[in-house]
Design goal:
3 strands
C-alpha cells in the first residue's frame, strides 16, 4: 500500500476498509518532491507506523491517549 501525505499530516490515522491500521509518521525522504497529485509516480511516500506499535508505545510511556482501544470491526 502507498500512502500520500503532506506537511502537517503526521499523526493522521491510516485506515483500510474502515479498519484503523496505522498512523502517519512523517515523510520518507526530503530528497523527493512532496506528494501533490496522486497520479505523479515519483514523490516522497509517507512513513506509516502500525497502530498496534503506536498504541503500545503510548501506553508504555503513559502518554496522552494511553488506554485508547479501537472499536473492533
Amino acid at each position: 500500500m502507498q500512502v500520500c501525505g503532506g506537511p502537517g499530516d503526521s499523526g493522521a490515522p491510516v485506515t483500510v476498509d474502515n479498519l484503523l491500521v496505522g498512523m502517519i509518521h512523517g515523510a520518507f525522504s526530503d530528497n523527493l518532491p512532496s506528494c501533490i497529485t496522486k497520479y505523479i509516480p515519483l514523490h516522497t511516500p509517507a512513513v506509516v507506523m502500525s497502530i498496534n506499535a503506536d498504541l503500545a508505545d503510548i501506553n508504555a510511556k503513559n502518554r496522552p491517549g494511553a488506554g485508547f482501544v479501537p472499536v473492533p470491526a
